[in-house]
Amino acid sequence: xxxxxxxxxxxxxxxxxxxxxxxxxxxxxxxxxxxxxxxxxxxxxxxxxxxxxxxxxxxxxxxxxxxxxxxxxxxxxxxxxxxxxxxxxxxxxxxxxxxxxxxxxxxxxxxxxxxxxxxxxxxxxxxxxxxxxxxxxxxxxxxxxxxx
Length: 148
Hints:
Layout: H1 3-21, H2 23-51, H3 53-71, H4 76-95, H5 101-111, H6 117-129
Helix pairs in contact: 2-4, 2-5, 2-6, 3-4
């Protein structure tokens, strides 16, 4: 038996095992759950950025004044550019609080009612292989888990 034949047999065995373990469905479930939780995190970060925008601006102003005071304004233009850039980033993050709301609405209703033991048990195995095989499916609502 040649090396090529051995590799083909090994590949067939792996494919059969993947079908037997229903890895495609588990990976899809994992990807959908990851997407859901990333959307929730983006929404929460956006809310925090929006709610604390004024505080962030005040702290940047104080830090800029301190730098200007110690350097006699030598780096004022850099401090100003940094301030504008950071606030632009804060605004972008704050905008994220509204974007995923419509997508997570349909999945959040089923999150509290559907918990599948198979998805929970296979989570660590899927985590190692998940990012390489996500296909962007949208069947997350039927198999999502509740996690603290």
